[in-house]
Every structure is written in C-alpha cells, then in structure tokens.
Amino acid sequence: MVTESRRRGASWLLILLILPFIALLWPPFYNFTQPSFIGIPFFYWFQLLWIIITAIITSILYFAGA
Amino acid sequence: MIDWVALSVFIFFFLLVTVLGFVAARWRRGDLNKLEEWGLAGRRFGTIITWFLLGGDLYTAYTFVAVPGLVYAVGAQGFYAVPYTILVYPLIFILMPKFWSVCKKYGYVTPSDFVEGRYGSKSLAFVVALTGILATMPYIALQMFGIAVSVAQMGINPEVALIVAFVILAAYTYFSGLRAPALIALVKDTMIFIVLFAVIIAIPISLGGFGKIFAAAKAKGVASAATAAATHTVPVFHFTLSSAQFLPYTTLALGSALALFLYPHSLTGTLSSSGRNVVKRNAALLPIYSMMLGLLALLGYMAIAAHVTPLKAYGSNGIVPALIAKEFPSWFAGFAFAAISIGALVPASIMSIAAANLFTRNIYKPYIRPNYSAREETTVARITSLVVKLGALLFILLIPATFIINFQLLGGIIIIQTLPAVFLGLFTRWLNRWALVIGWAVGIISGVYMFVAANYSSVYTFAIGGHKYGIYSALSSVVLNLVLAVILTPIFVAVGLRSGKDQTHAVDYTEDMVETKEAIPEALG
What we know:
The complex is a heterodimer of chains A (66) and B (525). Chain A is mainly alpha-helical. Chain A has helices at residues 19-24, 42-64. Chain B has 22 helices and 2 strands. In chain B, a hairpin with a 2-residue loop joins strand 1 and strand 2.
C-alpha cells in the first residue's frame, strides 16, 4: 500500500479549472451561428467542444497529481 | 393501440434488471444490516462502477426527456444543460475528494453528518437534512414521470406501468440497497449509449444531415418571432439567444452546477466510491455523459425537423418518445423506451436511499430514537426509502405533472442553500453556525418568494435603473444567504455566540491516510 504524494508545484495547475467558467459564462462570446461545423452552428458546437476541453483539463490535473 | 413488439422487448429488459436488482445483494458481499453497506455499499466501488453509478445517478430519465423537450419548446435557452454539466466537473474535482476523505475518516454517511461534525451544530445539521429530503422527493416523482412518458408512447396505460415499476423498484432497493442501482446502472448506461449512437447517426441521415435539422429549427425561430411581432408578445422560441436571455442562461448554468453536488443522491454516489482518486478520475471521465446529454439535447431540433407531434398529455416532454417511435422500428423503440425507463429506476433508487439515509441518521436518530442498534438503523432506512418511493408514486398518480415540475425547480433553489455549510465547510469553519442557519433561512425564503413572484419560474427579473436583469433565483438567493452569513459571523462572535465543537482536523480533508492501489483488472464482481 502506497501513500500517493502530492507532486510539488502541481497545485498551480488548478488555475486551469477556471478556463471553462470563463469560456462558458459569457454567452455573448459564443452566441453566433457562424462558423458552422458539419452543419452545426457555432453556438452549439462550441459548447460541445468545451465538454472535451474540460475533460482534458481535469485529466491533466489528475495525472499531474494536483 | 399497443405496440406489442416494442412492449415485448421492453418487458424483457425490465425483467433483466429486476433480476439484477435482487442478485446485487450478493455482489461485493457485505452485511446489509449495516447502514454503511445498505446505504453506501460499504464505500467500495472502484472507478468503473462509480462511473456507471454516478452517470446513471446524474443523467436521469427526466433529464433525457426534459432537456430535448425544452430545446424543442424554446430553442437555444434549453441548451444551458450543456454548460451546466460542464461546469460541474471542476467543482467535483476540487470539492468531492475532500468530502470523501472527511466522511470516510469519521464514518459520515450524509452531508448532515458532516455538517454536525464540522460545526458541532444540531440545528444546522437538521436544516441541511430537511432541505435534502424536501429537494429529493419531487425529483423521484419526476423519474416516474419519465417512465410514464415512454410507456404511454407504446400504448400502455402509464398508471399500471408505474405501479408495477414502483413495486419492483421498491422491492430490490429494500433488499439490496445501493448495490442494486449500481449493478443496474451498468446495464442502463450501456443501453443509453447504444440508443444515443443509433439516434445521433440514424436520424440525421434520415433527415438529410445536421444542416437540414438546424435549418428547421431556425425556421421555427423565424416563425416564432413573426407571431410575437404580430401579437406584441415575446417570442417563445429562439434559435440563438436573445440579449435578454444571456444573463438567465449563464446564471441557470452556474447555479445548477453549484447545486448538483449538494443533492443527497450525488453525495451518496460519491461516498460509495473507494477512494479520493476514484472521485478524481471520475471528474475526468464523467464528461462523456455530458457529451451524450449535449447530443441528446439536439433531439429537440431533430423532432422539429421530423415534424413530430408528441402525445397531447405530455406536451414537449413527450417529444423524445414520439421521435423514437416515428423514426425507428418497433423493436428498437422498445429497447429505447426500456433504456429510458430503466434510466428512471437507477436515480429513483439512489435518491430514495439518499433521502432514507438522511432521515435515519439526521432526524430519526437525534430526535426519535437516539440509542438504536445498527440493525434498527438499517431497517428504519429501508422502510423510509419505501415510504419515500410510495409518496413519489402517489404524487405522480394524483398530482398534475406541472406541479411536480415546479416542486423540482423549487428543489434546486432550496438545496443550493446548503452550499455555505457543506461546501465552504470543507475549507474552513470560520462561518458561525448560527449565521449559517440564518443565512439558510433567508436564502430559502427569498428563493421561494422569487420563484412564486416570477409566476412559478426559475428566473426572476430584477428591474434596476431602467434595465432588466433576469437571474436564476437559486443563484441570487444563495448569494444573499452567503453575504448574510459572512456579515453575521463576526457580529455573533463579538457578541459571544459560541462556535460548536469541530470534530475534524485539517489533515482529514487531504490525502487518504492509506491509498490502496486499485487491483488490475478492477473486478466487477
């Protein structure tokens, strides 16, 4: 049994978690139809994309031991 | 007119999960006469099972029915479910490992247990428990609603189906506890993903591509604007947000994200996992469900493009079953309806267990029978979960759905009032317990008031300086709650109102004392 140790310096990465909030909580930034992607307007695919980005951020933080 | 093919497929899968519900009692064996085993499955679920459990817990039948229904009815505004379920994950990543650790250390089963240990306040613990129970009950009822909607599409009398579903659900939850919905979630989430893939690929193909689908939605927006102009009202449907909708959209997303993990069923799911790292991994993996939800939301637009008419009784909430019935052969429709209905059973089971845990530990024990045995504790919880489900069944059979939906919206507004005590309590106990109680009370009163004043709507519009600001009432009321608690705390301290005893220590919120490496492969049995 091993005690997982917090990697020093990884805690600053937690600031990355603020990015989804910034990206999503100001709708005027993304309330557009263009550019569209495979027929999906920007407003919709932008938000779907941030699902993926947020998951990547949390994965990075997990592996960095934050 | 009953769709017999669909019904047969439906019944097959329903029977399957019923069997699983009872078999679950033997899965990862534990003494089910202990509340920690019945109510938290002994805190032993690894990453994969927790993923299925939380996914099934958070993405409910009501979600699948209501989100596309909302998008169908109002357009872009309904998409707030996507940023909502995105913003939940950073919160989980930061907060839930702490919550898990401190609850494991002291054997806390509910958020109310934690609050009592942290603040040494019985009153605060009581209000947290009461809020949790009240917020959960309409949510359970709405799961039943999800079953009713899919079953009605097959031509079955929904009331009969609901009673049957209730009996089965009540029986295996009583018997197996949290293990039942966990095992069933494995099946349910798999089915849902299969349905999702089929839907997201087949329907756009049959409708001629996403371009056509969004064009239909856009046309609806144009038509709605035209009607509104002619009748001097506000358009009902928007293809992209109007400027008046920006603030409601963002506050709905943020407020809902903050509230989700204050619900007892979310916390129960979290506490059933076996370690902090399981929780963290799930913060990274659960977003897969968000993607599913985002794509399912687009079903609302697909329904517009496919010219679907829902069953009258259910309005826009009937759009998903109607779309599936129209676009897919009977056997697949039966499979999809089974997925949705089973998707109701999982959260209904977990929610009733969570409410039962709260009632037993934080109301029955302190106020009715302080010295019960471990066995009595579990028996009380079992019976409570039965009563709670029965109550939900009666609700859905006797009370119009609109009322229940309103209660659930109100539930979100009241559960967020536990945020200062539960979430901030994970970081500091600076806030005075009485300040927290008063903040809670003011938050509840203001939240309920705004809900009623906005004509039973979640968004209350403030008119300030000639401008209108529509804000989700949960958010505005919890801000008021917090501000009040922060202001009152130094005053109460100065006046000499004592702080209660904090049972916990700073180190309890951090790394596990001992972190066991998960066995590979993680055994499912």
